[in-house]
Amino acid sequence: MFRRFLLLLGLAVPVAASAQNRFSFEPKPNAIPVLVGTDTLRQAWAGGQNSPSYSNLDLNGDGQQDLVGFDRTTSRITTYLNAPAPGGGRRWLYSPSYESLFPTGAVGWMLLRDYDCDGRPDLFTRTSTGDVRVFRNISTSGPPAFQTAPTQPRYRLTPTVISTVHLNVYDVPAVQDVDGDGQLDIVSFEFSAGLRIEYYRNISASCGGLEFELATTNWADITSCISACGSYAVGGDQCRNGVPRPNHTGGYAMLLQDLDGDQDLDLLLGRDGCTEFVAFRNTGTRQLAATTPTSLLRNIPAGLGTITMPNFPGASSVDTNFDGKNDIVVAPALINNLDMAQLRNNSLLFTATGTAAAPAFTASPSGFLQQQMIDLGEGAFPAFIDVNGDGRLDMLVGNYAEQTTTVGAYQTYRAALAYYQNIGTATRPAFRLVNSDYLGLAARSYHNLHPVVTDLNRDGVLDLAYTADKDQATNLYYHLNTAAAGAPVNFNTAQFNYIDLQYNWSGRDDVPCFVDVDGDGYVDLLMGTEDPNPGGSLRYYRRLPGQQLETSFQLANNDYGLLRRSNNTLPSKLAPAVADVDGDGQLDLMTIDDVGTVQLFSNFRAQTGPFLVRTDVFYNPITGQEENSRLANNYGLIHGLTLADVNGDGAPEMFVGLQTGGMNVFGTRNRVLSTKAAANATWALQVYPNPARATATVETGVPTRLTVLDLTGRRVRETTTAQRRHQLDLSGLSAGVYVVRVTSATDGSIGMQRLVVE
């Protein structure tokens, strides 16, 4: 929302306009095909996954069970509709507009379970301190709606003390009907030591209550030992090293599942810091679980077999193939990736092929969903440039890092730059992965590689720059493009040049954006920072003409725009991008921070003091409202934000790179086109041919002066003589989209038109 209710000079849309008329972005998850080899990724722009879990829920009220995902590393919710597939059958269709309908209070873990017996799954999660928290699904038809349950889970700690159900924040509990009485119970490892399993039995008088009793502190007689990952004592056995000391710095992920058809619930269990997924056969009953010394199973029955994950396996019971049977999805249950595990393509799917009396599962070779997405491990940071000289923007994507080999940890956990070639047309882009380590940057052992393209040396072709972390600090590197305009790029990677910004702080995770801030024809630098001290979250470095490139950027403002969060704190890990997003002819600044908050600062170069900010820039077609971003719900994450017109319509698309290794894409709506169209009609503004190659002609009905700007706002052509006909020499300009701006010599009014240079 706007901090101050003012109208900026040049902002052509009133800030009080309705959602039907205001400029905004809307999700376009299925607009741009992405191919890997010959396979088209069906969920290309769903954002990737690190540690997903899944539940079923009817999202659109059509009577079909849809799919809701939750990623623990980001507390990000993703939604997929159960939709008809081309050629027949059903498919999962990524539909992000439903994500904002879920409460922002879902953090750490999320399970959709019907506790009030109304047929609508409710939402179980935790608070920041570990208390189990419940949101009731109050919708009667159509999309879900949640409100905080009138009472929260509680139990009698002593005869006189009522307590919340408090779990370790690393754990994922089982919220299921354990004893078969039709009410949801809670099973989890004890909070303090994490050695034994506690069973909270629901003792509410009727369905819909959340009153529990701590029925046992040693459910199924299972003890976790600390001697090794797969070390457990069961059925009365003791840990080999004696009674284990309290050591609950890690966590456990639990799922109760009848694996042998005896109508009680067995336990599937993953452990933080461990790769092995194990099962415990319940030799007792649903009401009184028990184990024997042979209950621990590493070769899990019912066809699940031996299951391993890079770290901390967890399981979801969910219908994935539309047959009404719950399948099992196994994926990491990590809340962070400090151990630098491989997070790409790590979801395993076991489809249910048996019956309740004879459970059976079959492993799916293709996993579940993640393999259908752009997923670069941790982090995704896109940039767009015509790599092969065909006049279409290709996509380069950096990442935070992923495992490049199976040996070691930090040394092989590296960032790289992936190259996706645009194999579509000028108006219908499509990207195909060509090289997952473009320019061989993985050998540099970088982390957190944020690419950006700009013309650094003013030779008319775009160069490549990027920030990357190495040796506990961030540097800004660049490679000049020595190719001619319109030719395939030729980056000189023999030398790894860097721009000396004279850092006097231990900054990391900084993100660059080059733009001509002061209008002198030279690109300046806006640097988003992780460490805002001294100063703020966005630094402005002015380009000094005539200086050597390496030392030509001088700090002009260390708290540019005085950017703040809604609670007046400094945003962290800020990623900036600049383009004319609303169509008023003025450059706008957009940023995303560590919690995924996207902010828009319209016509920022005309602002002084604290920049006016708007955050409700995302239009939701389900509610008809403009909303804040819902891209994450944890602090300390890394994101990327890029604005690029990839479909040649003159409006930039917004690509948001996520901690989860993938991207979301958004298109613009209600750009300010009518004002420009009226002015252009009055002057009879014409630009032809358009697209153009070597030359273009600009005609106006009144004498005008002309300026051609690239998408960073840099002047690339300019005339000082007012006339009605201008001949533009386009030689030396890179292929891409430019803005032709004409200014009336009589009254100073401005008209604009897009020019595509091929």
What does this structure look like?
The chain is mostly beta strands and 758 residues long. It folds into 3 domains: 233 residues, no CATH class; 292 residues, Tachylectin-2, Chain A; 73 residues, Immunoglobulin-like. Helices cover 1% and strands 38% of the residues. The chain is built from 1 helix and 56 strands. It has a 6-stranded mixed β-sheet, with no helix packed on it. A hairpin with an 8-residue loop joins strand 8 and strand 9. It is elongated, with a radius of gyration of 28 Å. The two termini are 39 Å apart.
Q: N- to C-terminal separation?
A: 39 Å
Strand order of the largest sheet: 3-2-34-33-30-29
**What is Rg?**
28 Å
Top-tier CATH class of the largest domain? Mainly Beta
List keywords for this structure.
758 residues; mainly beta; Tachylectin-2, Chain A; Immunoglobulin-like; 6-stranded mixed beta sheet; 1% helix; FG-GAP
Layout: helices, strands, pairs:
Layout: E1 24-27, E2 34-36, E3 39-40, E4 52-57, E5 66-71, E6 76-84, E7 90-94, E8 107-113, E9 122-126, E10 132-137, E11 146-148, E12 154-158, E13 161-164, E14 174-176, E15 185-189, E16 197-202, E17 211-216, E18 222-224, E19 232-234, E20 252-257, E21 266-271, E22 276-280, E23 296-297, E24 307-308, E25 313-318, E26 327-332, E27 348-352, E28 361-364, E29 381-385, E30 394-398, E31 402-403, E32 413-414, E33 417-422, E34 431-435, E35 447-454, E36 463-470, E37 473-479, E38 497-499, E39 511-515, E40 524-528, E41 538-543, E42 553-557, E43 575-579, E44 588-592, E45 598-601, E46 618-620, E47 625-627, E48 640-644, E49 653-657, E50 663-669, H1 674-683, E51 686-688, E52 695-709, E53 715-718, E54 723-729, E55 736-744, E56 750-757
